[in-house]
Write a structure and sequence with these properties.
By secondary structure, the chain is an all-alpha fold. It has one domain. The protein is globular, with a radius of gyration of 12 Å. The N and C termini lie far apart (about 25 Å). The relative contact order is 0.20.
Length: about 100
């Protein structure tokens, strides 16, 4: 569920219809608060937190954070979920901003 939140916020931060920086910062803060309230594997929590922070930044930061998250979360996600998470940062989304 937490990786889905990262994907959702990442999509909202990329491309032509991206939310403005202030809105993305507010969403990242709220999502990190939510993340603190749910059970996730301890090894995945830092990568999830960094990915949520990255959604308030630029496409390069989001791409790096999502790539790290894919590596860290791989033991808990199936191949289809990992592919969808990778697709979030694939062109043309990142390159259109």
């Amino acid at each position: 569920m937490a990786t889905l939140m990262v994907a959702r916020l990442s999509c909202d931060a990329l491309g032509l219809g991206a939310a403005d920086v202030k809105q993305r910062e507010e969403r990242a803060i709220a999502a990190k608060s939510w993340l603190a309230s749910i059970a996730v594997p301890a090894r995945a929590r830092p990568a999830l937190s960094r990915a949520l922070d990255a959604t308030a930044r630029d496409g390069a930061a989001i791409t790096a954070a999502v790539e790290e998250l894919v590596k860290v979360a791989a033991p808990w996600l199936d191949d289809a979920s990992l592919a969808e998470l990778r697709a979030v940062t694939a062109a043309p989304f990142v390159n259109s901003r």
